[in-house]
Amino acid sequence: MNKINIKYLAKELNLAISTVSRALRDSHEISAATKAKVFALAKELNYEPNPNASGLRGQKTKMIAVVIPDMVNDFFSLVISGIEKITQSKGYHILLYFTHGDHELEVSFIKTLANGRVDGVLLSMSSENNNRHHLGELEKKGIPLVMFDRVCDTLQHVVKVTTDNYESAVIATRHLIDAGCKKIAYLQVHKNISVGKIRMKGYLDALQQHSSQASPLVLESANDNEETFQFLQQMLIKEKPDGIFASIEKLAVICYRVCEKIRLKIPEDIKVISFSNLQTASLLNPSLTTITQPAFDIGETAANELFQLINRKDKSVAVERNVVLKSRLIKGRSTARN
Amino acid sequence: MNKINIKYLAKELNLAISTVSRALRDSHEISAATKAKVFALAKELNYEPNPNASGLRGQKTKMIAVVIPDMVNDFFSLVISGIEKITQSKGYHILLYFTHGDHELEVSFIKTLANGRVDGVLLSMSSENNNRHHLGELEKKGIPLVMFDRVCDTLQHVVKVTTDNYESAVIATRHLIDAGCKKIAYLQVHKNISVGKIRMKGYLDALQQHSSQASPLVLESANDNEETFQFLQQMLIKEKPDGIFASIEKLAVICYRVCEKIRLKIPEDIKVISFSNLQTASLLNPSLTTITQPAFDIGETAANELFQLINRKDKSVAVERNVVLKSRLIKGRSTARN
DNA sequence: CGAATTCACGGAAACGTTTCCGTAAATATT
DNA sequence: AATATTTACGGAAACGTTTCCGTGAATTCG
Fold it and tell me: What's the pLDDT tens digit per position in A82-92?
């Protein structure tokens, strides 16, 4: 359990510490012969530079933070896979944080991250979108930030990677209308998630422009799944919608369960469409029509944007940019015409 | 963008660096009055200690690495959630690595990790289980290791967290036998994953002891999903099994697709059971009977075991321990009696 | 051939913490 | 009252790396 560091290599080779360091970094100031000797010994002893020392000296950590609500659905798993593809190719490391939808946790994570622990941050915000003061701390410390999916719509001077939520919601709603739905309900999560707001606007606009439906029908989900189940059941019985547009897949799943319980047949009695990255959507009973976000692409894109920020020369000017990726409508039997 | 570090705090308060450091760590050597002043300023300026400096000095990083094959199924997502619960409560950070089933990548990850980047490693091995020399490097450097799920069965002196794969496989096979299956096929991944081997042994033993089936029927999946689809289709047509035991959920999903294509009715014509953590298993058509591993528990347990190793006093003696958690059989319609 | 330049390397400072050691003043002990 | 101990803090070393600066020797140039 001997400490193998540059000092040890230097002593072993009768060289100065600085020489060994330069040799390892392939500096032109070092002769080929010396480099060869250093490389050989480093390889033999399995030498790896101490990241804390490098980080401390160079103010570079080769690490980025990924801060997401959680991983209960396939979306964020895919995003992370996309991020990992990029970080892996750049020799970077991923630090992973879950906010569990808790804004306070998010603030505390960002605070600890704002001190040289990472070279950059990828963030998908926690539910409560009220306060964004903590993000200024990152900018103040010169740590690049890229937001994705759940972005902060009121925050300027930041790079955001999103999908065409509005257009997709319009398409989804029109898909239900075209399938013959006369009364379409929208299942929404918390009101203060920007993604949810934008999707709902798409639903509302499409309804107004392309349907004769008298008024929109919106159900906001509860914190607890069982509670949501009850609410949805009441709504389906009372309002009798013939189309359901779920803003997230969890709500579609709950909807399937409610329909099974109260003997509503999908798609005969009621049609269901949902934003979803569920890999088994096509195997559900019936197969679920989905609006599927390019989750892996989002991860790749966000990571690439972040590395552009990390590597740029002039860090004084703030960068603002909105990258919007397209979602896809994948038809299943849940919205088949009667 | 001023650097806020201990030196700055010290100058601002007319104190020595050492005094400020001790105050921040709530040392008994510092008077209450001084502590209060230091805390106040630190809070006001949002001071956070530089992790590289702390890590370099104290040889503690407050980080652990999680090395897993990938995140294409819900299992590892849940494991990570379990791990995160523990790290979060201990103020630790998670570094995440995907090996993508590539042994070389695993070796290279472990190598970089063996140099003070992390305080401990949680590992679920990549597919190829042949070489385990790289893990010795961790032990040599005194970095604790806990393996989970895909463990190395030939490696001694290490903590392993697994599930009762053998017993579960016996139960799964017996479940099919009890449901009336006379010819049960086992769908297996790569031969050299210990988990797969153990599960297959359970299948073989259960078959021998409780079934009149002449000989076992095993199909090893190809690397490519479509290829596996073709193989399985051929096998179902040629051998006509009436029961399928899938060792991982991906194979069960492929099996569903094949059955749909060649018009085999589940469970009337053929019954299907699978190891799976699919959250939508009960919503599939038909609902899938699963052996479900306590993935979240595995994460929690592995993380707790790791922290025990990290915090123990005497690091000279190697610890060996096998924690085995129980899986659950969750009945669906895919194995209903005819 | 003397001067300027390049080459190849050594010494030392710096990154921000933590902790060992030292020390005046204050308090306690005999 | 003289000594011992505690209190509260300062100075400096150490963690391992990178890089600035310096310097003899070798090479190039006029």
Answer: 999 999 999 99
